[in-house]
Design a protein that fits this description.
The complex is a heterodimer of chains A (about 110) and B (about 110). With about 110 residues, chain A is mainly β. Chain A is about 0% helix and about 50% strand. Chain A is built from no helices and 11 strands. The N and C termini of chain A lie far apart (about 35 Å). Chain B is an all-beta fold and about 110 residues long. In chain B, strands 2, 5, 6, 10, 11 and 12 form a 6-stranded mixed β-sheet that branches. The chains are: A mainly beta (about 110), B mainly beta (about 110). At the A-B interface, strand 4, strand 5, strand 9 and strand 10 of A face strand 5, strand 6, strand 10 and strand 11 of B.
Chain lengths: ~110, ~110
Amino acid sequence: GAGVSQSPRYKVAKRGQDVALRCDPISGHVSLFWYQQALGQGPEFLTYFQNEAQLDKSGLPSDRFFAERPEGSVSTLKIQRTQQEDSAVYLCASSGRDSIYEQYFGPGTRLTVT
Amino acid sequence: GNSVTQMEGPVTLSEEAFLTINCTYTATGYPSLFWYVQYPGEGLQLLLKATKADDKGSNKGFEATYRKETTSFHLEKGSVQVSDSAVYFCALRRAQGGSEKLVFGKGTKLTVNP
């Protein structure tokens, strides 16, 4: 079956622009995660949804970052007024009730803020 | 808080050499432990996992044993292949009842030469 997909794969934004990153989880997966991976670093947690409920947003670095999953499927991570330090790969992962220990990752969106 | 420390790379080996990548963790309770792998140009994939002390996770010739007494989860492979060249990430998930988020180490880049 289809895996986790993310779009766009690459995004270049000028400082101050708003961006929206999309994640399509594996069909039927109730849990969805966003991570940020800076160059040469491991992924760092941003936020977590169970269905449409955002249960943990403790990793969002500032109030410029906002995530939603209104129908419990597709999720969007929005970054307002982008800054250079936002440049990173943004990873989405999903997991289902029958595989609670495994998160399946998408290919990521590489964001470059110039 | 929860954290993962893994040996810094890069690691360069010849084909058929023995591989060890060290990983230690700090966490309350009994976390689940994971090794993820990121092949060039691909997304993160789960390599193996262990959910309780003394469990051994294994996959594709790789092994790691959950050692509570030393808070370690070292990755080993007896004979590496060129196709094992990738970045390896150690990760933990808090004990059941906590957030499902993964906490990653910084990653170790492995290059295997023919």
